Amino acid sequence: MSLPQMHYTSAPPGPDGSGFRFTAVTPGVPASVLREAEQLIGYEPPRDAPSRPTPDDLALFPEMFSHTRLSDGSGLLSRTVYTGADYSGRWGNFHAHAVHLAAGERLSGDMPPIAAWGAPEWADRTPEDGAPPLGRLTPPPSRELRSELAAFAAGRTPWLAAVLADLRRLAESPHAPQVVLAEEDTGRVAHWVMLACTALPRDFARDLTFTTYTRRPQQARQQLVGVRPEDVRSVAGQPHRYSVHDCSDPSAAPAAPADPWARTAAAVLASGLLPLFRRAREAAGEDSGAAPFAPGPLAALALVKGVAVPEDARTEAAAWVRAHPTALDEPTLARFLEAVCEVLPGTPELPSDALAGLLDALHGTVPAALTAPLTARLVDRALRGGATALPPLPPGALPEPYRSRLAAESGEELRRALRDPLTSLARVAELLRVARLLGVGHDDLAAPLAERIGDGLLSGAGTGPGSGTGTGSGSGTGTGFETGYGSGTGSRASAAEALRDAFAEPGRLLDLALGHLDARAADDPPGTARALRDARLPLDGVRGVPHLLMCAAATGTGPDTPGARGESGARTGDGSGGPWRDRNGELHRLLRVVGASPHGDPLALRTAVALVWEDRGPTAAEASLLLSEAGARPHVAAGTWDHLVTAAVDAPPEDEEAPLLARQILAAAPESVGRSVLDDLKLLSLVHDLEQKEDGAAQGGWTARVRALSDSSRPGVRKRATAALARRLLSPDRPADELGELARSDDLDVIDAYASAARTPFFRDVLRSVPRRTANCFVDWNAHAGASPAWDLTRRALLDEVLRPVVRGLSDENVLKVEEQLSLVAIGRVYDFREWNRPAGALGRLFRRRGRAPETPSSSWRGDVERPEGKRDPR
Predict the structure, then answer these.
(1) DSSP 8-state symbol, 712
(2) How far is Cα 374 from Cα 397, in angstroms, rounded to an integer?
(3) What DSSP line would sit under 217-243, residue for residue?
(4) pTM value?
(5) Confidence of residue 268 (pLDDT cuts 50, 70, 90)
């Protein structure tokens, strides 16, 4: 590699002029680079420097060593020194020697620019032979420099973390404030840059711009700017632009930043272990895209070396080793585990959850003897009231002599805590795991523990033992076995954890707990299903607990479960508004899971119905299918009979299946129907007969039956029945005296329903299009005059407000057709019709409308009528 170089100083007159000018430049350096470089390499002596320095004084002038990014993306690495008087004897001369690095070009050996500080190739005067390309810049011996840097870092401990945190901000954002370092000696600023490049990611270190000295920091373009203490005032008080650190004033040392990486890196630098940064980058895989400022790898290696890293960095180290269990060799890993388990005075211990996660990751990856100190530490914490559960481990995970010693010391105390009903479920789960690990027997305690665990799994919240305000952590008194109450959510999670652990080593506790849960599942299937959805118990292969297995299958967590809730797939809305595409099919699937049938196991049927129709009762169509498939007896025995009855009597008015369901219920088991809903079902059954023209309906007596049943029926059912009655009374096939029965009833409900049906747009369209129906309605609405006040008011209103506007809109031809139909009934009715339809005066006859097109029928009319050609009853 060849580095173009340039020299700049005050020189005698020559081809390029006199005074300060470039005195030697490697051919090919662009003029634009020279113009920009000239603005960067100038030198101002310190304010207190002697105006006519001696040779000894010149050695004390600060050296300006800079790395600057030029506007074209290339780099300028320069060294400027004060030289005193120039060729003419004038004082104030300096000499700048610079090399130009093209964009993307690096120094030999890929070393960062600061490594060239002190290189022998830097010149204090212009060479006589000009400026040929420079082959390389030779860094000083690394061993001596490393020792010097370690000593410097130890003396700058108060500022290390803050400066590193500021440099990290610069690495992550080009808009971060410039870092200004005030030092008496510019060589110390160079040491700062060397420390920064040691700690920072390699790519950023190679691109870091800096200057070790300037009199005017507010004009500096570099990211890290070195100044003497007297020049720091020009950038003070501008935190949005400059982060200033006056390292000459110990009283101005900043507080430790929140950045755990910066505090960890500072601890490593202060300890003099500079090679750890390179090892940490190699362990983390710097070129693999790993987070460059993650403190975990560096903190892990620092702990191995005995460096006291910050508490949060210790946690990060454990998390990193947990995520990369093979990153450290076994000897290094062993020392790391010893370090994280060590209790240091004044240093908080690692949280138990961090240790537990670490052990969980390492178990099965490294020998148990290697993790034995970690396992023993966690078991000891668990015995003394640790707040985090021990991960599931086989007995061999804690080798001797650890296991025997802990079992002998704490076995009886452990059993006593398991017997105590005030021990939270979180603590019970922890102690059961410890008991299995240490081989402490507890079968004699299984029955009450199984009941507590089962109830805890099913409890959303509670106030009894194990469901108070804690999560099972130690109380801080006594031995640590006794603990406070756990929250309801914590109790459920702890119970699930205890059960999952029990599946790993099946025994009496597991059998009793599953039996208890099955009994609870029969009592509250939806609640049990909700608990199992979160618990995720491994129930494959479990038998003898049908209700529990159905609850698990309903949530998609049990055995033989193709998916959550139903073989047909996910939740979708069906035509009846139900949440499942085929809820009846889901019921059969749940029964098949446990090999049950509605006839052979009514209790299983009850559980399945409660699970499938958890959110609301079955629709009338679903209930009708249930009744058709199984009959009434299984539902009566299972206690699900009321679901079928409710589906009928509480069905919405638009549910067309409810009347048929009511008829099925009365036919299947009328003796099982409660008196409070009997009339509702009979009324709905009558609605079915009226709408379907069943034989029973043809016998008549509709009005009387509706009125008799309506007295004790629900308003919705009564309204539905009166509407069905009204539609049949407007149909041409009603029994002869049925309208008279309605007229004489003087019942406002049934008469109003009749009027409402007659006023629907669909029926008006029928009147316009079917002359026979128009004629019949004229006869009907003139009949039974005086039968009751309500009927008289209604029939007159229907004649004036419904029939008259329809007839007035008919053509003469259609009016004649109506008269023809009336003549078939009684000739006198024709005369009455003509008188009734006679327009009032000549003006009325003049404006009589002819041939008006019929309106679109209304979907609210559902009577059985002769429909006009091309019209469809929306039923």
Answers:
(1) T
(2) 10
(3) GGG--SSEEEE-GGGGGGGTT-TTTEE
(4) 0.56
(5) very high
Residue type (1 letter), 198: T
Q: Rounded to the nearest 5°, which phi and psi values hold at 8? A: -140, 130
**C-alpha–C-alpha distance, residues 577 and 575, integer Å:** 6
How many Å apart are CA 508 and CA 450, to the nearest integer? 9
Q: Per-residue pLDDT tens for 39-72?
A: 999 999 999 999 899 999 999 999 999 999 999 9
Sheet bearing 210-211, strands edge to edge: 17-25, 5-14, 91-101, 75-85, 64-69, 210-211, 224-227, 178-182, 242-246
Euclidean distance between CA atoms 231 and 235, whole angstroms: 8
Q: Is residue 80 classed as helix, strand or coil in its secondary structure?
A: strand
The helix (H) or strand (E) run that includes residue 15 is none
Distances (CA, A) of 259 to 196, 201, 529: 15, 16, 45
Could you give the count of Cα atoms lying within 13 Å of 548 in the half-sphere of its Cβ?
24
The answer to whether residues 576 and 621 touch, using CB atoms and an 8 Å cutoff, is: yes
Q: Are 435 and 442 in contact (CB under 8 A)?
A: yes
Place of tokens 């049925």: 738
Is the distance from CB of 584 to CB of 620 less than 8 angstroms? no
> Pairing state of beta strands 17-25 and 75-85?
unpaired
Give the Cβ contact number of residue 162 at 10 Å. Answer: 21
Residues 6+ apart with CB under 8 A from 831: none
| Distance separating alpha carbons of residues 277 and 298, to the nearest angstrom | 7
Report residue 118 as tokens.
Answer: 């002190």
Burial of residue 828 (number of CB atoms within 10 Å: 0-12, 13-18, 19+): exposed
Q: How many CB atoms lie within 10 A of CB 565?
A: 24
The Cα–Cα gap between 315 and 296 comes to: 8
* CA–CA–CA angle 403, 409, 413 (5° rounding): 115
Residue 664 — left, alpha, or beta (φ > 0 → left; ψ -120 to 50 → alpha)?
alpha
pLDDT tens digits along 154-184: 999 999 999 999 999 999 998 999 999 999 9
Using DSSP bridges, classify how beta strands 91-101 and 224-227 pair: parallel, antiparallel or unpaired: unpaired
Omega within 30 of 0 (cis) for the link into 174: no
Whether the pLDDT of residue 616 is over 50: the answer is: yes
d(CA 384, CA 481): 6
Residue with tokens 């800096």: 210
* Contacts (Cβ under 8 Å, ≥6 apart) of 573: 579
Integer CA distances (angstroms), 435 to 208, 368, 514, 677, in order: 57, 19, 20, 58
pLDDT over 70 (residue 870): no
Query: Is the pLDDT assigned to residue 519 strictly greater than 70?
Result: yes
Helix (H), strand (E), coil (C) string for 171-194: HHCCCCCEEEEECCCHHHHHHHHH
Name the percent of the chain in helix, strand, coil, to the closest 5. 55, 10, 40
3-state secondary structure of 93: strand
Tokens found for residue 194:
């060397």
**Rounded to an integer, what distance in angstroms lies between the CA atom of residue 31 and that of residue 150?**
42
- In tens, the pLDDT along 337-388 reads 989 888 777 777 888 888 888 888 888 888 888 888 888 888 888 787 755 5
pLDDT band of residue 129 (cuts 50, 70, 90) is: confident
Report residue 284 as tokens.
């983390």
Contact call for residues 253 and 294 (beta carbons, < 8 A):
no
CA atoms within 13 A on the CB side of 592: 11
Specify the DSSP element, H or E, that contains 329.
none
Q: Can you list the alpha helix ranges (DSSP code H) found in 459-575?
A: 488-504, 508-523, 525-535, 546-554
Cα(307)–Cα(784) distance, integer angstroms: 109
As a whole number of angstroms, the distance between CA 458 and CA 551 comes to 12
What does the buried/exposed string (b/e) look like for 446-462 if buried means 16 or more CB atoms within 10 Å of the residue's CB?
beebbbbbbbbbbbeeb
Q: Which residue in the block uniquely carries the two structure tokens 């020049």?
A: 231
Q: Do 819 and 778 touch, CB atoms closer than 8 A?
A: no
